[in-house]
Amino acid sequence: MFTSSRQSSSKASTSTTNFFYTTPPSYELSLEDFESFALSRLIVLRKIEELKVKGLDRNQYNDALKRVVNLQLPSSGPSPSAKKHNEKRDLASHFILRLAYCRTEELRRWLLTQELALFKFRLEDLEKRGGKDMSAFMKNAGISFDKITQDEKQSMQSQLRFNMSYRDFEASSFYRIPFAEAVDLIGRRLVHVRAGMAYVPGGKLVSIICARFRSHLSRSLAKAAASFSHVSSDTRIGPLLKNMNKQYTGRDFGKQHTVEGDMNASNVDEYAQRSMPLCMRQVHDGLKKDHKLKHDGRRQYGLFLKGAGLTMEESLLFFQNEFTKIMSADDFNKNYAYNIRHSYGKEGKRQSYTAFSSTTIIMGPRSNPSEVGSHHGCPFAHSGDASLAALLGKMGIGGKDRDDIMAHKKNKMYQLACAKHFEVTHPGAAKTEGVDLDGVGNHPNAWFNSSVQYWKNKEPAKKDMKGKINTPMAKVERAVVSPGSGTAKEVV
Amino acid sequence: MPALQESNAQKRKPEEVMEKPPLRSSTASIPISPYETSSSKAVTSSKSSSGPQQNAVVFSPELLRIYYDRLFPYEAMYDWLSYGVEKDFFNRREWSFTIQPTPEDEIYIRYQSFKDLEEFKSAVIKRQPNKIDIGAVFTHQPKDHNNLSKDVFHTEERELVFDIDLTDYDGVRTCCSGANICNKCWKYMNMAVKVMDEGLKTDFGFNNLVWFYSGRRGVHCWVCDESARTLSNDARSAVATYFELPLENEEKSLDLNTSLHPMLARSFGVLEPMFLDHLVGEEGMGLLSNQEQWVKLLKTLPEEARKAGIAAELDKEWTKRDVSPADKWKMLKSRIEKETKKEGAKKQRKFKGDESERLEMWPIETVFRHTYPRLDINVSKMQNHLLKSPFCVHPKTGRVCIPIDVSKIDSFDPFNVPTLPQIVSELESYAKENGESKNVPDWQKTSLKGSMQFFLKTFLNPMKNEQRKRRMEEKAKEEAFTGDF
Ligand SMILES: [Zn+2]
Question: Is B36 a catalytic residue?
């Protein structure tokens, strides 16, 4: 409860973020952050939706929500830079989803409902921390209310004091608010109403602020919807925005939860032959050929391997084995080991990065085939028709199977092409017990997991299949592509 | 009952419905309610305790035709529902007609709209609706709703409306049930109107509101302030639930807090005297007038209090000597007060905390259970909810839905409301005595005169004046802004 909202604290409390989201961020965001931020928020919002139907009591709900918020969208951090990063994630992800979810009435309503629940959770948390934080938050958000004078309060005492102890009444400030802004309190008869104005004690302002946030967000969504076609015409972020609500948040590849298989430095080759989607297979084979991998490829492949269960130590070992074929172990340690440790969260910001989704790879930078070690990107999206057809042929995929994949590619349905690739290399997978095809085509690690499940099931036939698939990967032809900058500008 | 529900007719193609001319045969009869004998061609008045016109014809297509030709206040309705705003405002209002082309067939036509007074008037005269409902003002004229997507075609505003019906009082009234009413149970309506009228004006600050008799067994309230018309559905729900108490379940406690909300405290002040005047005595519901009844009431005391012998003691005393019902209530209350007062130096209560609280609140809960307004709140919650138009004639009773003067609500008698045959014969008598005077509006020749004058003087004209004043102020502001400096 805060008795004086007017106390002007010269320095705003450090633990108050502006989650009222009045101003969109003006900084640039890498495409990778763009997607990973949005995913973090999606995970939280979907969790809220899930928790609400569980019929939990208030404490259980708050505890469960707190856990996922602290994990995905923490508002503070152990250091100033981590805190800043987290605030940036929170702010950017809100505006990204606002844009991604403004397109239809249904999406808008969904976002509004979940965002409001998140807002309320945070505001109540803030309120528990006391008046100073709350005042700072309101000041930040530009919210002020008409406080009644002490004389008015005393003269209205008999009406204002219901349902309140004498001490609470004495300690409370009351605010005069148009009743239409206090519908929640009016509907539950929790406040006095006179001549169209609700008299709200300070302790009940949370409800009013929530209502303001709701109408603020609702209006903003309507406005965003009007300008959506303009923003979504951007070829890089447009598809991301349009597919956001279908984004895969089922599993978080990279946090090493449920992973199939027992990958280590010595069997990566074997897994690459049997269970990697084309994008990873391409990087893997490129690495084997060049003994070198440019930054984008290392990130794409390194995080994928991490998501596939390769530990940091094994990952260091695996890359070292390849790289040291053309450089010294010292050079490798000096120039590359740091990045690998970093991606496992053992360096720098100590943030654990997650593997790229298919959308990230498709929208991400293209490789430059004329450069040694440049093998990243999505072969379905980034390669020319002829080179993809040739590549498939060299992998033993021909006839109708190849035609089907090529048809998807020509229709720009890259993820369908990828799923088709899975289908033709894993015959009967849909009917195979224990194979979860959810996410194949949406995430390379889902592709991988499904494949490992499949082969586990076909274990007796493993040897035959292995022989068949183990065609040596010929030189990969690459399409000539223009390098992308990987930055989404002024998105929101 | 106001209609959101889809009737069969709605599922038909509107064009089909529109093409079908209403039947005007003089032999047409209307389905008769189960309470009435079905031999009559036209509708006769239903059972009533004070109906002088028992079994007289109260409603027929011929009478209705005269009413729509000469008496229905088209101008006033048009004036009202235009609110003096933009030209197409009236045109975007949804109307629905219930027509009866054959006695077995009732057709409900939604999404009608009329561009002006003439179109409205001629549609009513052509269709001869048994019932007219008024809906919301939409973004486009409702006629076109089939050609527009839901994103584009939606409600824009609507009066805040309330519907109170005596059928919702069947759990407490002992005189009648269902569609029947009498002067005893009509008192419930008086109580409800007083509480609601005060609450809407004092608490919410609404000025332009008007109450109507629904034509049979209830009342409607139309709140027409701009601030009310533009309320969102959420805000409407909030206002409705603000006034709502969970009275539909007789067993369920109202869970009143000892620290009553100011609105409930004020309502108790209004309702308790009416409870004593109209419900406890022999001439009312007799809640405390004979042993059978008071025992029933005493049984609703909290269990602990009954165990402690309060009920038995009072029963004994009331049987022993003659105590008036009002005095019984006083005794009951002071007895409860004594039991719940904190006693002695230790300030100990006789009963456990919540038990004592329930006992303390029992008199209030009892008064509310018997008197507090029982709203059909679904009518109020949504913009897109139809409600019967004022000045309709109820086909079952023949009574006109006239406005109710809240300041004289105690003397409002539903059995004195003008009926269709009555006003038509008044027209005839007037013509016999004074000739067909064209200078006098027809309604002034009938007993609708008082109602119409009340409607114009206390509702429509003040509202129009307010609108005019506001427009002038806006204009002045605009001129000050664009004028020379
Ligand atoms: Zn009755």
Answer: no
